[in-house]
Amino acid sequence: MNESPFTAPAGKTQLSFGKIVRMSVASLRLHLVSSFLQCLTIAATAAFLVFVAGEIIAVRLTRHLPTAEADPAGKISQLLWILAVSLLVCVISNVIGMLLSVTKRFREIGTMKCLGAFDRSILALFLVEATILGGTGALAGALTGLVVSLASVLTTHGTAAFSGALAGQLGLAALGSFLLVTVLSFLGAAYPAWTASRMLPIEAMRTV
Amino acid sequence: MKKSDWLAPTSATIEHTIRCVGVQRHYRRGDEVVRALDGVDLVVGKGEFVSIMGPSGSGKSTLFNCIGALDQPTEGSVFVDEVDIAELDSQEMAWLRCRKIGYIFQSYNIVQVMTTVENVILPMIFGGVGGDESLRKAVSILGRVGLGDRLEHRALELSGGQRQRVAIARAFANSPAIILADEPTANLDLKSGNEIVDLLIRLNREEHVTVIVATHDFKVLKASDRVIWLRDGRIDRIQKRAELEIEESELHT
């Protein structure tokens, strides 16, 4: 007797994962310009992170070469500062970018709630969208950063600087910044999407 | 009343779809408490066409939102098919909004970036109808509201009247029992407004859906079975169609 007449016969799921991915991709394509710009910002921060990390790695690994830095320790501490600042910029810009892009769609979220979307369907849609966007940007940025770093090392120190250790450490830096930036995008979208999905529809539609 | 009571066999014979009992909605504005709704009791029968009238600030939209499970009353209860919607969890609430109620808003609220047909398919996706079936149904409904040749247009390419028709088609997508319309003609010119009203009346007759309209539009009033006049968050008076017709004939003589 506890069963409500409004219980969905399909049970707990409303949208399959495939459907969510298709809807997210469609939404990204529909917001093409803003998705692209946001992707570009994400890529830029990821690339810069890899580049700064790459400079530090290069200074450490090229000490034995004639082209080495005169003061490696000083240079590294200077670069560490830049790395810290760029990490901060990366966190702020990605989280705020995602926060804003989800927040400006509160009305859309309210509308979807009126049309019968489950809270978790809305959350899933926005998280998948953020992960695709963040992941693509971060991947493109990390690869760009890797290439630029390598090019920078090779032009400064010549081919003698190239080693397995350098390639490995640069690869790790690229992987790390890819993961970090993807997670940041995810978290930046998660907070507003979670908040909005739990709002009363009328509250969500009234904002903006 | 306990939840089990509503599902007792006796309740099956009840023919009203919406029942408001002592509904109050208070808002805080600084230290002051605004009573947007101050005790509304209302029963709406199945298939009825009801208008909610009143000056702005009388609580029309708030009542509309409370009936439609878009807002929660501070006090009192709203029953849809004799189920207290305050007792539903978020999923049951979503199901209610999806299958039982179709919403039409003053500002259309269609998803701007989607095409006409995608907008109508959206509630069907949430309702678990997918693929070709939803597409076929969306095309057929859009044909009935006169947008058969605008399937792939986006909101920016449509006029206000056309956007409101998309919203109407979307509201009917899951064949709901109740249509709620909040000032559906307020943003439209006279001609488009009249077309929208005619469409609502036609769908009310053809589909036997309950229609509740918060409105200022006299064309809507004339079509209503009952008009509920709100004042300061309370029901001022309720007029039946017969009384409205008498009033109108008095005006003309």
Features:
heterodimer; A: 208 residues; mainly alpha; 7 helices; 0% strand; elongated; B: 253 residues; alpha/beta; Rossmann fold; six-stranded mixed β-sheet; four-stranded antiparallel β-sheet; 9 helices; 38% helix; disordered N terminus
Oligomer: heterodimer
Q: Whole-Å distance between the termini of chain B? A: 51 Å
CATH topology of chain B: Rossmann fold
What does the radius of gyration of chain B come to?
Answer: 18 Å
Largest sheet of chain B: 6 strands, mixed
Strand order of the largest sheet of chain B: 6-7-8-3-9-10
Describe what you observe in this structure.
The complex is a heterodimer of chains A (208) and B (253). Chain A is mainly α and 208 residues long. Chain A has one domain. Chain A has seven helices and no strands. Chain A has helices at residues 17-30, 32-61, 72-103, 106-114, 119-157, 164-198, 201-206. In chain A, helix 2 (32-61) packs antiparallel against helix 3 (72-103) and helix 5 packs antiparallel against helix 6 (164-198). The model of chain A has no long low-confidence stretch (mean pLDDT 89). The termini of chain B are far apart. The relative contact order of chain B is 0.17. Chain B has helices at residues 3-6, 60-67, 90-100, 116-126, 131-144, 160-171, 190-207, 218-223, 241-252; strands at 16-29, 32-45, 49-53, 75-80, 83-84, 101-104, 178-182, 210-214, 226-231, 234-240. In chain B, helix 5 (131-144) packs across helix 6 (160-171). By secondary structure, chain B is of the alpha/beta class. In chain B, strands 6-7-8-3-9-10 form a six-stranded mixed beta sheet, with helices on both faces. Chain B has a four-stranded antiparallel beta sheet with strand order 2-1-4-5, covered by helices on one side. Helices cover 38% and strands 27% of the residues of chain B. Residues 1-13 of chain B have low confidence and may be disordered. Classes of the chains: A mainly alpha (208), B alpha/beta (253).
